[in-house]
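Notes continue from the previous slide.

Worked example: a multi-chain complex. Inputs as given:
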Amino acid sequence: MKRTAFAAVSALAFMASNVAVAEPQAEVLHWWTSGGEAKSVAVLQEEFAANGGTWTDMPVAGGGGDAAMTALRARVLSGNAPTAVQLKGPAIQEWYEEGVLADISSVAEANGWADVLPESIANHMKCEGTWCAAPVNVHRIDWIWANADVLEANGITMPTSWDEFNAAAEKLQAAGVIPLAHGGQAWQDATVFEAVALGILGPDGFKKAFVDLDPETLTSDGMVAVFDQMRKMRGYVDDNFSGRDWNLATAMVMNGEAAFQIMGDWAKGEFLAAGKKPGEDFLCQSTPGDGFLYNVDSFAMFNVDGDDKKAGQDLLAELIVGQNFQKVFNLNKGSIPARVDVALDEFDSCAHTSSEDMNASSANGSLLPSYAHGMALRGAQAGAITDVVTAHFNSDMSSADAVQMLADAVANSM
Amino acid sequence: MTKWLETHLPKMVLAPSFIAVLVFVYGFIAWTAWVSLTRSRLLPKYEIDGFIQYDRLFASPRWDTAMNNLFIFGALFIIIAMVMGLLLAILLDQKIRTEGVIRTIYLYPMALSMIVTGTAWKWILNPGLGIEATVKSWGFESFTFDWLVNPDFAIYTVVIAAVWQSSGFVMALFLAGLRSVDDEIIKAAQVDGIPTWRIYSAIIIPSMGPIFMSAFIVLAHLAIKSFDLVIALTGGGPGYATDLPATYMYAMAFSRGDIGQAASSAMIMMLVVFAIVVPYLYSELRAKND
């Protein structure tokens, strides 16, 4: 079944690509180099080759993409940009403003991207009205993961409000279980912070604070409450959390040392890789509150010379958003497809929840970009906020001071 | 022709490296200075826009922390490494039998990369794995040694690791200095019945001035450019409590796409180096002219 679907999509794509005269060429810069991710990219490579294209792989590992961005900068400055680059969020528009992105509107319109992508996600792929990037997946950030046995042993259900979470955490602490598995790295502090902020400020407040950077919201009582909750969260973390990697925190939940973890859905990959079953061994639920925070990986298309490269770019864009790649890639990566019309039969229950919530929140406008993962703000602003969040979390700063510092830092980062 | 070659050959041989230094050192310093005056973000731009980046830099609490850390770390690292190095050198200088072996053992940490040092100390100082856990397992339940995860003390763990790495090297420098002091003077002092500690404090150490200066310069530039040790040991954390100017600059340039800000922090770092090196060069040159 899988094979026939693959063949059908390939055949379709092949017919479309026949229109192009030159042989498609693509040089792809990405940093998906670890196990499951590398496998996912290989799927795209095979599909590209099956459609007559020549793929030049340019993987740059390290630093969560920092190394790849440095390589990209050097390539662009020397006037020799790759065909497609793994980029996401406002970084796409930032590169567009440097005048180096290509227009792939013809592919997007021919394949009806506007109809199959949620509107707010589609907007990230556009540069002043034209399409300039192709989305690969949707990671949800505001997940809370739990060890089912630990919760049952302590008579706790998944929390639906932060008060419930606090009550559960205190109960767990009394029972000698670490309530929250957390790694003290700035981006992880920011991940917890934005989940808390979404819950307490609500989708509208979150949007005002972290998308519009509205100074009033940044210094509001709601924001003070967010920092108050962060102070409580600090108390639920073990003393040894500094510098711990996220997957080690996930392992703590897995082996029952800790009860909860707040982390994006790549954590699910760790559970599944360890042979744990969703709903039985571990539980997944959105963090308390409404809304959906997404982190969408995408490929931005750069200006290239030559018909063969342009043909490669078009073919690549078409395949990336194609149903087959969206399904296979996301099964490997733990995220969900960006397009809403992919059959989710082979996906697990957490992915089903994620997909349903995405559609619902897209309809009521609470589908929001993650600030901690570079979807909502540019690097300088997001970094300034993270500095304050992590400084507050790792010291005894008062919430009022933190809020003031937050407003100053955001103003200073402009 | 040979005459001409004789006078010009040295210049011709030196010219390529001179040009390379001119372009790749001074040229890029000038480029960085220029960029630090612009609003460059993702890619460098060249329209000058005043001192905005320096204003932003000095308004940033993270930069304050980084500079404070540099002074705390630099001062403690230089002083402790020099004292330790001198002490080890004096002890080794007592004509002990296994000097060669011991000297190698103390010098060996210098052969390690800072990344290895940082990673090893990260494990040693980690409260859940290292010293604290070990002492607790011996039955001292109330023992705590959590400097690595305590934002107020984390910078001192960087000092510990850096001193461990470098004091052997300083020892070797001082040992060479001690050996170069004229034996006759020391023997004369011993004949006069002067106690050993007086010989060291009044004769040997004062005559080692230049060695102190070299050790200081080497350690100072190690301190200012330290980057890998912090990255491996604490990752700049907890929070940004152990950020140094070099890690700040890296974060701005490579993680945040804020090149103007990174350039301005690089310029300030360079000024700090100048503040140390220029008086040294001045005193050296004046000494030669006299």
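Summary box: The radius of gyration of chain B is 24 Å. Chain B has a mean pLDDT of 88.
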